[in-house]
Write a structure and sequence with these properties.
The complex is a heterodimer of chains A (154) and B (143).
Chain A: H1 2-19, E1 25-27, E2 33-35, H2 37-51, E3 53-60, E4 64-67, E5 76-79, E6 84-91, H3 99-105, E7 107-115, H4 117-130, H5 135-138
Antiparallel strand pairs in A: 1-2, 3-6, 3-7, 4-5
Chain B: E1 5-12, H1 15-20, H2 23-35, E2 47-54, E3 65-69, E4 74-80, H3 83-86, H4 91-113, H5 120-133, H6 139-142
Parallel strand pairs in B: 1-2, 2-4
Antiparallel strand pairs in B: 3-4
Classes of the chains: A alpha+beta (154), B alpha/beta (143).
């Protein structure tokens, strides 16, 4: 009875999938459901991309005022050329996440680490927290807890 | 964009990256903005951003791109520099490579943008003349 119930459900789902043109499911050899081959390929591609991660730093290209996302009442902070504005991570396929920052804020992008997404997150976390100790920060009258372009800790 | 000509980079955090940014980026950006007025070539192009990609060949994250957004009149180019040539090059030689790649990119952008009333050919010629006058190479180098 239970088996019959599952078979009926699988059939209904398969019919629905076909009817709604949702081609992410297909039937396996046993009559059950599995991910379609195209969907499975997307999954593998995504997992592969997560293995190819990059941790980067965005630095000021020119000395001047840059947005600060957590500077209390001040929305701008002065950075000397070369100073850190933000740490971040990106993976393959995330086209142009940094593009706006580079073209509208006058920043340059430096790759600091490559590895898996887990390793990159670790590096990013370390750098965001350790920013507080950088000489460029400690020289300020009011040092920042994190880089001006990082809105939150991780 | 914060200025008509934006020049930036994606580089490794090493001595090769140091040859590309910051001095050479600043120099190119300031040179173009001081000497070239986009409005003089016609309507439709408000800004051109070039980001030089100076990362090792195993970089699979940053790809070349040449695009133009008609709504804003902004061109965006991500242009890869030949990494093997960057390693032995001096900072001046890297600047010349950047100038050469910049002009190639500008020619490709002209094809992509197709802003009908904008004189791309004259812009490319003027930028080339500017680079030659600055000593970044001769006309043969830029052809």
């Amino acid at each position: 009875m239970v088996l019959l119930f599952f078979m009926v459900c699988s059939c209904i789902l398969a019919i629905l999938a076909t009817w709604k043109d949702t081609n992410f499911l297909e039937q396996d050899a046993g009559g059950g459901l599995k991910l379609s081959s195209s969907r499975e390929a997307q999954l593998q591609q995504r997992l592969q991309r997560l293995e190819r991660c990059e941790q980067y730093v965005l630095r000021a290209k020119f000395s001047g005022f840059y947005p600060c996302y957590h500077c209390a009442a001040d929305t701008l902070i002065f950075l000397r050329a070369g100073e850190v504005w933000k740490y971040g991570i990106t993976i393959q396929g995330e086209k142009g996440r940094y593009r706006n920052w580079v073209t509208t804020l006058g920043l340059r992008y430096r790759v600091q680490f490559r590895g898996t997404i887990q390793d990159c997150l670790r590096q990013e976390t370390l750098k965001i927290y350790q920013y507080a100790l950088l000489p460029e920060n400690t020289r300020r009258k009011l040092p920042l807890i994190r880089p001006p372009g990082n809105k939150v800790d991780l | 964009m914060y200025t008509a000509f934006v020049v930036s980079s994606i580089t490794e955090d090493n001595s090769i990256g140091d040859k590309i940014d910051t001095h050479n980026l600043q120099l190119l950006e300031q040179l173009l903005n001081a000497n070239v007025q986009l409005a003089a070539y016609g309507p439709g192009v408000a800004g051109i951003a070039v980001v030089f990609v100076g990362t090792a060949p195993e970089d699979v994250i940053h790809e070349e791109e040449i695009s133009f957004e008609p709504a804003t009149g902004e061109g965006y180019l991500q242009l890869r520099l030949p990494y093997a040539a960057l390693e032995p090059a001096t900072e001046q030689e890297v600047l010349e490579l950047m100038a050469q790649r910049y002009l190639q990119g500008l020619r490709d952008l002209a094809v992509v943008a197709q802003a009908t009333d904008f004189d791309w050919a004259r812009l490319v010629r003027d930028v080339q003349d500017l680079f030659v006058a600055e000593g970044f190479g001769n006309d043969e180098f830029f052809e």
